[in-house]
Amino acid sequence: MAFTIGIVSDTHGLLRPEALAALAHADHIIHGGDIGNSEIISALRTIAPVTAIRGNVDTGKWAADFPETTSVRLAGRLFYILHDLNALQIDPAAEGIDVIISGHSHMPKINNMNGVLYLNPGSAGRRRFKLPVTLASLEVTSDGLKPAIHNLVVA
Q1: 3-class SS at 80?
Q2: pLDDT at 154
Q3: Which of 11, 106, 131, 151 is the most buried (most CB within 10 A)?
Q4: Using one digit for the tens of pLDDT, what is the confidence trace for 26-85?
Q5: What's 11's domain CATH number?
Q6: What is the spatial distance between Cα 28 and Cα 16, in angstroms, rounded to a whole number?
C-alpha cells in the first residue's frame, strides 16, 4: 500500500482550487515555504497533516510559527525541507536523508544524487514569468519512491 505525500511550495497567499483537488488524497502534505499567510496551512490541514517551513517572503508574526528548515520521517523515509536549495549546508547522504524538498526557484525539478531524491514542486501560487503552475506528489511504496510533477493550470 502506498503512502502519498503532497508537496507544494511558493503559494504566496494563493491556494488554488486545483491545488486542493490535487492534494485531496494525500496522507501528508509538505509545504516548502513562501506560504504567504497562515490560512494556507489551515486549509491544507483540513486535508492531511502538514509539515511546513517559512520562505524568504514569509515575514511577520504569523511566520514565526514555522522554522526555516525541518526534518520529518514519513513512511520510514527521512525528509529534509528547506526553501532555497542553494542554502543547503549539510551532506544529505551522510546524514541518512532520503529526500530533500525545496522551493524558491518556482521551477519544478526531480533529481537523484548520491542516493538522495531532490524534489522541487515548483510554484502553486501566482504564475511567475512563463513558468508553469505546479505541485508534486511522492508515493512511498515497497518498490521505492515514485515522484511526479502535476501541472495545475493549462495554458
Answers
A1: strand
A2: 67
A3: 11
A4: 999 999 999 999 999 999 999 999 999 999 999 999 999 999 999 999 999 999 999 999
A5: 3.60.21.10
A6: 18
Q: Which residue has the cell 511558493?
A: 10
Please tell me the total count of domains within the chain.
1
Nearest to 79 by CA among 132, 14, 147: 147
In sequence order, the β-bridge partners of residue 123 are 133
Q: Does the pLDDT of residue 155 top 70, yes or no?
A: no
Q: Which of 81, 83, 79 is nearest to 97 (CA)?
A: 79
Domain range holding 140? Answer: 3-151
| Cβ neighbours, 10 Å, residue 63 | 18
Q: In what order do the strands lie in the sheet with 50-52?
A: 50-52, 28-31, 3-8, 134-141, 144-151
Q: How many residues does the chain have?
A: 155
How much is the pTM?
A: 0.97
